[in-house]
Design goal:
alpha+beta; 4-stranded antiparallel beta sheet; 4 helices; elongated
């Protein structure tokens, strides 16, 4: 199956059987499937499909199911800010110790560790709450293409 046929089949399924009102954004070699924004939560996943023509003429479909790019950036920015704050606190604390001053910079380190723990907990909770939506997206594409794509990919990899 080539990329055009795959996008056509997904488009037909979106028109014919789409109870959760999934919408698609597509370009020539890429399709993003997402739930309607008005019914979506912060943890609601999207599915990105990209297509690559192989030397033998077959089309490789790569799939990524995860949160929207805005959520990815929120967590990446949060981790980056907390890590930079932690490194600054450690550097400040060490400098204060070297100058024989009160090392209050170290007091920020537990706050940073707690913040990283909170982000980690939120990420795990979001992943757990999004599991049914991830399965729905996978099943939607499997039915559109007429295969169990993950199982087929695992078999072809060996």
């Amino acid at each position: 199956m080539d990329a055009a046929m795959i996008t056509d089949r997904i488009g037909q399924r979106l028109q014919a059987e789409n109870p959760r009102k999934i919408w698609a954004k597509n370009t020539r070699d890429h399709v993003t499937l997402a739930f309607q924004p008005n019914g979506a939560e912060a943890w609601t996943p999207e599915m990105d499909l990209s297509f690559e023509v192989l030397e033998n003429g077959n089309t490789m479909v790569r799939c990524l199911i995860g949160p929207s790019p805005g959520i990815w950036m929120l967590f990446a920015g949060g981790y980056l800010a907390l890590i930079l704050l932690g490194l600054t606190a450690i550097t400040l604390g060490v400098a204060q110790l070297m100058l024989k001053h009160a090392a209050w910079g170290f007091y920020l380190v537990p706050v940073v560790v707690l913040g990283i723990g909170v982000l980690f907990y939120l990420e795990r909770t979001g992943r757990r709450r999004a599991r049914s939506d991830m399965h729905f997206l996978k099943d939607f594409v499997d039915k559109a293409l007429g295969c169990d794509c993950l199982k087929l990919a695992a078999e072809q990899a060996h």
